[in-house]
């Protein structure tokens, strides 16, 4: 097992390098160069200052040397200084927001697993039943609906029309005056809509795959064997079939991570949640390039780590993977 | 049964093609269908709720929402086709090269795909837009440039399974070159899956564009798009529900249409794939 994890970690190195190369080239897209931009925005810039910026960004050096020194800074966790008026290190700005995004993402994954797996399994076991047809429609709409629009509709209905749930931020104005439990309830109420919205796309995807997996597993010979030796239908489905159908779901969950992270920009912006996605949106709008590049890089690395966790859990669950 | 018979019998696929056809017609005849000029500002009639004069109400500048949505259909059609075109061309070329030649070419291309798939697509699109101007052409091309990886995998798989077949060996024996084999002999046989991927890709591109426009970094006002009407919907969420409801419904129906059409084509081209 350790050998497998080590091998997977080794595979990550070229991917990681590739990610930095792509980030570096996106950075080169800037009209002119980063120097032009800063000096254009600042009327007080002189020729001398331009030169100083040039040496700071090492623009006078050949491109491979620029990349190399950028990479060296990265490996020390240095993503540069934000262009925003606070002039803080990008790493610091991202780190204080990552926990919120990861919490939301984690809760969404829990919701996806808790709802999608039973839906997929039940609709496969009762294929062509009314339940199967209704969930089929739900899945189809889930694939087609713009989640930001669904967010708007739910905000109008639950937030404004019924007034049950808050529609922005993570805390009420009176948060400071609430008891511990009151604060927890307040936070939970603020999280209901964002978490549901961020989970929605994944819900449709996973229940669709679970249903397909389950239908395939049920047709296998070993299920017939289990039935032939007289096991109850419940044991056949929930012990023999379910375990085998669950395995590929781990991969699907791993694959849904980039979508969840990418979606954070949309729902964190809509619900005014101070996470990494909102920071990214603000950085894009303000053309705060160091922050944009930092979050792009962190987003890709988070995806890489998510996939690693998915692969390793698959290997834990299925010994065949470890051996081959 | 041939393709058209199967397709015709598939009610969902037929529904999908009717939706897509209607969208084409609406885009084509937008100037005649729209009851008002989509850019006509009327400050005496801002945020009117739906009525017989303005079926879908008016926006914060008094412009007719229905007219803006009809013109918005053009934008989403254009974005869908151009973005998907870019993705399909890149994806097909890289997939064909990887699948046909194998070896190190395959290894390099597929590692590149793996790396691209590490990026949350929406992050990559936003990062690129931060550096460029969010014009409609930039948006379309960026969506295409970040969406070709699935097509590459698909085409590569088709090429690998086709390249060793007898008819390809036969073509090689009579002296056909690599290019001729790739484009004249293998590619036509991979067209079915490419066509399906393209139809579903259009749906995805329209969804992405609407999200970008909604965030204010896609199609820029005053050009009407379904996404940027929804932005006004969010800004007036407590007073003007019609700004939020109708454009989103249009996106949903459009995406459903393309998805149904794509799945219909798949089922008709290859009945074995049918679940």
What percent of the residues of chain B sit in helical stretches (DSSP H or I)? over 70%
- Secondary-structure element order of chain B, as H and E? HHHHHHHHHHHH
Oligomer status? heterodimer
Span of the ends, CA to CA of chain A: 12 Å
- Determine the mean pLDDT of chain A: 83
Shape of chain A: globular
Number of helices of chain B: 12
- Assign a percent range to the helix content of chain A: over 70%
Beta-strand portion of chain A reads under 5%
Distance between the termini of chain B: 18 Å
| Order of H and E elements of chain A | HHHHHHHHHHHHHH
Largest sheet report of chain B:
none
Structural class of chain A: mainly alpha
Q: Rg of chain B from C-alpha positions?
A: 22 Å
Q: Could you say which overall geometry of chain B the principal axes of the C-alpha atoms support?
A: elongated
- Please report which band the strand proportion of chain B falls in: under 5%, 5-15%, 15-25%, 25-35%, 35-45% or over 45%: under 5%
Structural overview:
The complex is a heterodimer of chains A (324) and B (275). Chain A has helices at residues 2-28, 34-41, 47-56, 63-75, 90-125, 130-144, 147-161, 180-218, 221-228, 233-255, 257-270, 276-286, 289-317, 319-323. The longest helix of chain A is centred in the middle third of the chain and has 39 residues, at 180-218. The radius of gyration of chain A is 24 Å and the shape is globular. By secondary structure, chain A is mostly helical. With 275 residues, chain B is mostly helical. In chain B, 73% of the residues lie in helices and 0% in strands. The two termini of chain B are 18 Å apart. The chains are: A mainly alpha (324), B mainly alpha (275). At the A-B interface, helix 1, helix 6, helix 7, helix 11 and helix 12 of A face helix 5, helix 6, helix 10, helix 11 and helix 12 of B.
Write the layout of secondary structure elements.
The complex is a heterodimer of chains A (324) and B (275).
Chain A: H1 2-28, H2 34-41, H3 47-56, H4 63-75, H5 90-125, H6 130-144, H7 147-161, H8 180-218, H9 221-228, H10 233-255, H11 257-270, H12 276-286, H13 289-317, H14 319-323
Chain B: H1 3-9, H2 11-28, H3 30-33, H4 65-101, H5 103-118, H6 121-131, H7 136-145, H8 149-163, H9 166-173, H10 178-214, H11 226-235, H12 241-269
Helix pairs in contact in B: 1-12, 2-4, 2-12, 4-5, 4-7, 4-8, 4-10, 8-10, 9-10, 10-11, 10-12, 11-12
């Amino acid at each position: 097992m350790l050998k497998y994890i080590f091998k997977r970690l080794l595979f990550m190195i070229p991917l990681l390098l590739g990610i930095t190369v792509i980030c570096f080239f996106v950075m080169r897209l800037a009209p002119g160069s980063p120097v032009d931009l800063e000096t254009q925005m600042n009327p007080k810039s002189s020729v001398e200052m331009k030169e100083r910026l040039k040496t700071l960004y090492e623009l006078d050096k050949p491109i491979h040397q620029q990349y190399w020194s950028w990479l060296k800074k990265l490996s020390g966790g240095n993503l540069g200084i934000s262009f925003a008026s606070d002039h803080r290190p990008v790493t610091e700005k991202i780190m204080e927001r990552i926990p919120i995004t990861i919490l939301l993402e984690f809760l969404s994954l829990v919701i996806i697993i808790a709802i999608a797996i039973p839906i997929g399994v039940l609709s496969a076991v009762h294929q062509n039943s009314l339940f199967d047809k209704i969930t089929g429609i739900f899945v189809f709409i889930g694939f087609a609906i713009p989640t930001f629009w669904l967010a708007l509709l739910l905000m109008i209905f639950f937030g404004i029309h019924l007034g049950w749930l808050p529609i922005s931020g993570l805390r009420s104005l009176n948060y400071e005056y609430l008891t511990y439990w009151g604060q927890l309830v307040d936070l939970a109420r603020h999280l209901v809509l964002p978490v549901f919205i961020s989970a929605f796309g994944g819900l449709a995807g996973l229940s669709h795959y679970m249903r397909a997996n389950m239908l395939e597993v049920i047709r296998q010979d070993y299920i017939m064997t289990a039935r032939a030796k007289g096991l109850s239908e419940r044991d056949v489905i929930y012990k023999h079939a379910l375990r085998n159908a669950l395995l590929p779901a781990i991969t699907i969950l791993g694959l849904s991570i980039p979508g969840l992270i990418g979606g954070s920009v949309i729902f964190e912006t809509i619900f005014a949640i101070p996470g990494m996605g909102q920071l990214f949106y603000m950085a894009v709008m303000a053309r705060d390039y160091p922050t944009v590049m930092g979050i792009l890089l962190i987003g890709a690395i988070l995806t890489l780590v998510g996939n690693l966790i998915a692969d390793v859990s698959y290997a834990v669950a299925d010994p065949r993977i470890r051996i081959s | 049964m041939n393709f058209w018979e199967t397709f015709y019998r598939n009610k969902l696929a037929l529904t999908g093609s009717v939706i897509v056809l209607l969208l084409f017609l609406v885009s084509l005849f937008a100037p005649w269908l729209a009851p008002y000029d989509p850019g006509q500002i009327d400050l005496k009639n801002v945020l009117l709720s739906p009525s017989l004069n303005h079926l879908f109400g008016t926006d914060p500048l008094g412009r007719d929402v229905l007219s803006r949505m009809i013109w918005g259909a053009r934008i989403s059609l254009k974005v869908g086709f151009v973005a998907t075109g870019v993705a399909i061309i890149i994806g097909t070329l890289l997939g064909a090269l990887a699948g046909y030649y194998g070896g190190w070419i395959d290894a390099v291309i597929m590692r590149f795909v793996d790396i691209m798939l590490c990026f949350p697509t929406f992050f990559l699109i936003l990062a690129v837009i931060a550096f460029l101007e969010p014009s409609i052409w930039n948006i379309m091309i960026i969506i295409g440039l970040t969406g070709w990886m699935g097509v590459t995998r698909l085409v590569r798989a088709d090429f690998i399974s086709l390249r060793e077949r007898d008819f390809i060996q036969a073509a090689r024996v009579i002296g056909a070159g690599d290019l001729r084999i790739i484009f004249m002999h293998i590619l036509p046989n991979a067209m079915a899956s490419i066509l399906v991927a393209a139809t579903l890709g259009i749906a995805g591109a329209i969804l992405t564009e609407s999200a970008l426009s909604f965030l204010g970094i896609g199609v820029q006002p005053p050009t009407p798009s379904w996404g940027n009407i929804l932005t006004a919907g969010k800004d007036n969420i407590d007073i003007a529900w019609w700004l939020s409801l109708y454009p989103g419904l249009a996106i949903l129906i459009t995406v459903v249409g393309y998805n149904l059409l794509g799945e219909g084509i798949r089922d008709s081209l290859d009945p074995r794939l049918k679940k």
